[in-house]
Design a protein that fits this description.
The protein has about 90 residues and is an all-alpha fold. Helix content is about 80%, strand content about 0%.
């Protein structure tokens, strides 16, 4: 039961990430807004990884890996995040 708030937060972070990324797909952001959205995505990714790390003892390894892959693919769609993702992934795995 202690993991329930983290599971809910993880679900909410998934939705936030999807909304922010869909703005790029729909070309909703002007150039001045993109830097803020990049920053916001990095904050969401950081929290997402922290929650996955906290849930590591509770969820199966396969589910953890699948969630990491989905997060990596979403963030890789924006080239700027390739180096950020590698840094976060190295920190998370070690």
């Amino acid at each position: 039961m202690d993991a329930l708030p983290n599971v809910i937060l993880l679900w909410r972070l998934d939705i936030i990430r999807e909304v922010l990324l869909s703005g790029f797909q729909l070309e909703l952001y002007v150039e001045d807004e993109k830097s803020f959205v990049y920053w916001e995505l990095s904050q969401v990714a950081h929290e997402h990884l922290a929650i996955l790390h906290a849930l590591e003892p509770v969820i199966s390894e396969g589910e953890l890996v699948s969630k990491l892959i989905v997060l990596a693919l979403d963030l890789r769609s924006i080239g700027r995040y390739r180096s950020v993702w590698r840094t976060y992934l190295r920190t998370f795995i070690s």
